[in-house]
Amino acid sequence: MLLDTYDLTDPGFWARDDAYPILDEIRREGAVQRHESAAEGPLWAVLTHREALAVLGDAGSFSSLGGSLLGTGHGPPAGSGRMMALSDPPRHRAYREPVVPFFSARRAAVLEERVRELTERVVERLLVHEKIDFVRDVGAVVPLTVMCDLMGIPDDDRDEIVDMCDQAFLGRNPAERRAAHQRLLPYLLQLAMERREEPGDDIISALATRLELDEVVLNCDNIIVGGIQTVRHTAAMAMLELIRHPDAWRELGEKADPGLATDELLRWTSVGLHVLRTATTDVELAGQRIRAGDRVVVWTPGANRDAAVFEEPHRLDLARRPNRHIAFGWGEHYCIGGPLARTELRVLFTTLSTLVAEVEPLGAFEYNQSIINFGLDSFPVRLHRR
Ligand code: HEM
Fold this sequence. Notes:
Elements: H1 11-15, H2 19-28, E1 32-37, E2 41-46, H3 49-56, E3 62-63, H4 91-96, H5 105-127, E4 132-133, H6 134-138, H7 141-151, H8 158-170, H9 174-197, H10 203-208, H11 213-244, H12 246-254, H13 258-269, E5 274-279, E6 283-285, E7 288-290, E8 295-299, H14 300-304, H15 338-355, E9 356-361, E10 366-367, E11 376-378, E12 380-385
Parallel strand pairs: 2-8
Antiparallel strand pairs: 1-2, 3-5, 4-12, 5-8, 6-7, 9-12, 10-11
The chain binds protoporphyrin IX containing FE (HEM).
């Protein structure tokens, strides 16, 4: 079996030029396969769209309590059962429902003007520089600012929060990243205590008036973590692909429907490479007998390049329709920030294609070492004005 040779949990696999042809061959050997990962031990790999929906759509048989991502060790992770991503129904709804109104498609439409104004400001500012890093300078500034708006972070604290979040994600080493994260949590706790007394129209207040304080902090952290790295890496990986596909970059500036184009870039990049679940009961999936307690990994690129669902899956088709990708997951835990992320990315690529004639890569880029948010460590480029 090819999964004896190739380890999907090794980020190096996804950096290979031939990762997708190999993935196709692996998928041909079975929709669901036993996989012995060097780092993670025995896992089930789910590689097809149909089986991915079967797992993600059945939170009763496939639990999130044991973790929703690999790489956090064995056994229930910290926060298990007390935050949105790491809980099962019915408790899950207590964490999700209070914040649903902040992430509705209607709210995203209202936020669009603000996102556009911020994005244009960022791109205009970067156009005067000879060299920028697309990962640091472009993709996260707007999501972070919008997040501060939604959380009701006071204006005076914003620079510090932006700095903390940047350090927490892009700090030079794990200790620096951990230290920044440790500064963020007490800050959120302080705000949660204040908002409990004097609630406003923001996410922290919505949670603080309904949940225990530690749950408020965990869930705010979940939303911040969920909302920043994903958008940043999708933006950078999508830009890299548009440089590799000059026809698509031209199409984006001329006739592409920005909404369809954004979904195709989400499918194509699939930066959230996997979603983890733990079986709660013995269950059969694509002819395999999965036992209660087994860990099951849905490989997003496997589903998103599945020829049974996507015609010519290895063609970047900015007009693809329908596009039933699962870059935002599926089912109970479907990404709550999906409408907002779509808006942020759509506005970013519309703005870039309007203001920028060419994005010129400057030197080498490196893939990061993450199967949680697969992307680039840095991506030096110069933006040339249109
Ligand atoms: C391109 C951007 C994004 C991608 C690719 C992405 C991907 C995902 C995926 C695959 C899931 C499902 C996880 C699971 O089933 O266990 C998810 C859930 C989640 N995402 Fe996103 N996400 C993005 C943007 C955002 C944004 C902008 C926010 C918030 C502002 C956000 C917050 C969350 C939260 C809180 C969850 C947990 C939902 C739940 O458990 O009910 N994400 N995301």
